[in-house]
Amino acid sequence: MNDFLEQLESNTNEDDELMEQASYVVVFIGEYAIKHLCKEICRTNKQIGHAWVQEVLQGHPIHCYEMFCMEKHIFYMLCSKLVDHVKGNKNLQERF
């Protein structure tokens, strides 16, 4: 009779461990689903092209950094350099 009770208690402990492990799995699956499957659209701007760039540049500095990976003044310096470079290339093309 003692063997039967010991085996029953052992099975109960194993069942408890299994239930605990299953609950951890459920929690991890839930966290994964919330993080990776339940997506909300965060950028709903309808503007495109030049209008979008202007809106980003006139908006919050962090949003500008997120979009262009550079601060506003760096973006303006880059644009200036690119425009000057294009002007220089145009002059060379007109010469030859």
Keywords for this structure?
DUF8040 domain-containing protein, 81% helix, 96 residues, 4 helices, mainly alpha
Total of helices: 4
How many domain units? Answer: 2
Apparent shape: rod-shaped
Largest sheet: none
Summarize the structure.
By secondary structure, the protein is mostly helical.
Structure description:
The chain has 96 residues and is mainly alpha-helical. It has 2 domains: 1-39; 44-96, no CATH class. The protein has 4 helices and no strands. The longest helix is centred in the first third of the chain and has 36 residues, at 2-37. The protein is rod-shaped. The mean pLDDT is 81.
Write the SSE topology.
Blueprint: H1 2-37, H2 49-58, H3 61-68, H4 72-95
Domain DUF8040: 44-85
Protein name: DUF8040 domain-containing protein
Pfam families: DUF8040 (PF26138)
